[in-house]
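Ticket #4471: structure output looks truncated?

Reporter: J.K.
Steps to reproduce: submitted the chain below (432 residues) through the standard prediction queue, then opened the result file.
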Amino acid sequence: MTVRSLYHRSFLALVSGGFVSALGTVVFDLVLAWWVVSETGSAVLTGYLLAAALAPIAFIGPIGGVLSDRWNKKAILVVTDVVSGAVAFGVAVMAYRNTLNVPLLALSCFALGTCAALYRPAARSIVPLLVQERHLVKANSVSNNLTETTKAVGPLLGAALVALPVVGVGGAMVLNGVSFWLSALAAAAIRYQHVTNGKNVSGVLADLRAGFRYINSRALIRNMVILCAAVNFFLISFNILLPLYVTEVLHGSSATYGRALTAEAVGGIAITLLLLFLHDIVPTNRLLAALIAAGGMSLALIPVVPAVTALLLFSAAQGFFVGGFNTLFFAYIQKEVSQEFLGRVFSVVYMAAIGVMPVAYISWGYIGDYALRWGFVYAGLGTVLCSVPFLLLRQHVTRPVAELTRITRPAQPSEPVRAAEPARVVEPVMAT
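Returned output as attached by the reporter:
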């Protein structure tokens, strides 16, 4: 298989639209934090606003998964992008008028988070319908590579836009709205035909319960979701401890902090490029365990040599291994979960990963205050311990006969006709 096999209209439309909107979101988050702090002098308020954006993903995300499994995935992508763009333009109006309305701002962040809770499971679950199963690792490599690129480029772009008098905060937020609408146009170009499974649907709550029963009845999927949340708990420490470590241990500046974040993103870009060009990479539980263990060791080694060079090296290594874990984890889930339940499974993955964040933020905040140097060691060793259960997971799931006959995406006239494949019986989501 070559990279060229991924260059067809529908997949390129999906990833290009996702890249543009993700870049706009990174810029929006940075500009929003800067604007709110400069207007109020309170970083706590920024935390509340960002929490308002995350809350829907953690609490109503599973409903988004149900809707992704029931509704037309392409329509979900288009509608959520259009609504997100309209909300972003509303925030831009407040910025241009220099009227900081906190309740409206919190409501806007909540609305953006709700759209994300609907968009994410649909975007992940549509990939197996656009790309053949043997191409899933490379497809996720492309997607995650672009995500890592936004982490490296977004902060620099946001800072540059705010500094430009002709753009400023309002202009940067307008560009975020434009990015969502460009993403909607790209999603509209996806060639995808929604096919219902022909079953009687008793309601959203019934489908939600069915999704949780599906996860609970398959030990492999259930344990993978639990382990994902546990790994995320420890990896979040990097975001909390890094600024304290830079200022209090290395006595560095914000430039050093930014370089460390960039090094982590570059590591993630490197592994996704490597996976994109390597042949026949099969996501296995043992490979996932090795990657997450290596990422944990990279985290634990950061304070061993208290120097900027060592920080950059281990930050890049951590980004490399965790980025590889994320890419293969998504491909693993896409292969092992039935297409009928894939949206719900991804929504639960996102819910589990984000649900641990409040406790993790508090826990690592206290550890950073009282045991900063040891914090990275604790987090790294905890991550390594999380890798051990991955070795005990079963490699394959027995596929029910009824699920082997599921309908996959029909070949489109403009794309090469391929033989029909059985449906795949198979969410930072790592924080870093």
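Triage note (M.O.): checked the attachment and the full token line is present. Confidence is low (pLDDT under 50) at residues 396-432.
Status: closed, working as intended.
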